[in-house]
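Researcher: I've been going back and forth with a colleague about how RNA polymerase sigma-70 factor might be arranged in three dimensions. Neither of us has a model we trust, so I'd like an independent prediction. The organism is Corallococcus macrosporus DSM 14697, in case that matters for your notes. Sequence below.
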Amino acid sequence: MTMSAPRRNLYVEPRHRPAQAMGSLPADVSEQLRKDLARAVARVCPPSLADRRDDLVQTAMMRVMELRRREPDRGPLSPAYLYRVAYTALVDELRNVSRRREVHLEEVDSLPEPPVAPSDPEKAAGGSQIAQAVRDCLRKLVQDRRLAVTLYLQGHSVPESARLLGWEDKRTENLIYRGLAALRLCLSTKGFEP
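Model: Here is an independent structure prediction for RNA polymerase sigma-70 factor. You can compare it with whatever you and your colleague have in mind.
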């Protein structure tokens, strides 16, 4: 009887680099860093951006993690450094907000009423029926198309709409034209022809 060699386990545990070398921190250190950054963000964040504090903390946290990844031998970070990271995250967010010129476009009912002579009740009734039909059809569009078409109907050009929405010009143009085609189709089913 011959003895066979013992069976080897074919699964080999992957070798992991130490957590510090990868730029990540132990959970307790990470949690303390998050708390310190939250305090720093709370000190620099104006009340008008209070709803974005968590995002600012996350942005600051990512910056610190990137620093740890690039410089794994760096010692503990001072409170002044964390304050500076929080401040630069806030400044970048303020720049992004002003660049995006955020507007709430979800309110489809905010479309302006068409100008109608108040002395002609028939035209006024017809105009309000058309406006209501347009609103109903806009509500049925997919959100991206609805936003693009709403801006277009409010008089914004394709480049302006793209800038306001933060999209590429070509994507915005596509959404507008496809949205307008869907809007025309919906209006024709309601008995309104352009």
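Researcher: What would you highlight for our discussion?
Model: I'd start with this: The chain has two domains: 27-100, 108-189. After that, consider the following. The radius of gyration is 28 Å.
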